[in-house]
Description:
Elements: H1 2-25, H2 29-32, H3 39-44, H4 53-61, H5 65-71, H6 74-95, H7 99-111, H8 114-133
Amino acid sequence: TRTRLYFTGLLCLLGGYGWFLLYLTVPGGHENNDFHACLFRNLTGLPCPSCGVTRSVIALASGNLPASAAWNPMGILVAAVMLVLPVWLLYDVTRFRNSFHLFYIRAEAFIRQRSVAVVLTTAVLLNWIWNIYKEL
């Protein structure tokens, strides 16, 4: 439902911004890249496909696009969502609109198309291979 989607979006935003705040406040963690909270990495020793996203967003926020893309290209997408989504949700809620909900429904239908799903899955797998290769 619209309400559940907007509530979930809000929780994800709060969690994301909280995570970055925590990451930045760990003494020396973000400077030495010693802060690894990835459960997959801690269990297997291998980075997951999203390992490096936090450092990517931090690099992007510092104005370093090449470093951001090198850490994890998905970080650029995450940063864009974290900037646009709060404004979009606030707009919809204050104006009693459904634009984000309608966008979500159309995007989900698009992603469920087999050809699109294959391309996106391949991109995630290639990103994972890249993370393993660079020993993230």
